[in-house]
Description:
The chain has 155 residues and is an alpha+beta fold. The protein contains five helices and seven strands; from the N terminus they run αβααβββαβαββ. It has a domain at 3-109: Aminopeptidase. It is 32% helix and 32% strand.
Amino acid sequence: MCENELAANFRVRAANIDDLVQVCEIEEVTFSRDPYPRFLFERLLNDESCLFYVATIETDEVIGYLVSKVEDHSAHLLSLAILPAQRRLGAATRLLEELIAASTQMGIHEIRLEVRPDNWAAIQLYSQFHFSEETLFSQYYSDGSPALFMRRVNE
């Protein structure tokens, strides 16, 4: 299967416990400086206030995931990651579309997130979905790196 075919053949669905091994592998590869531990993903998966989605290919292999915590009328995008070999094929876009559609349907007024300021690809993607850059938090991550706070108001 060529890369362009893959983009047309993946699907987004709710995550389940069987996905966690692959989700954690993607997390480790993507966020090697400070990955979330498996127990946190287990907790988020079992938390009814979380929206947890995976992007899979036809073999049901997980190529990406998104997890967001809903509180009051706000959603906090905790993590979004795609396997490096599968990036720029539309999986992150489809995951964000799913989050935005679900949050809008739930009456959520805003989605917020933090991203490393040097992660230009992610910032560009979020900007395409009308996330605005709000504030820079110094020494936010465990390695002392700053985080850029971004926010999207749902219409």
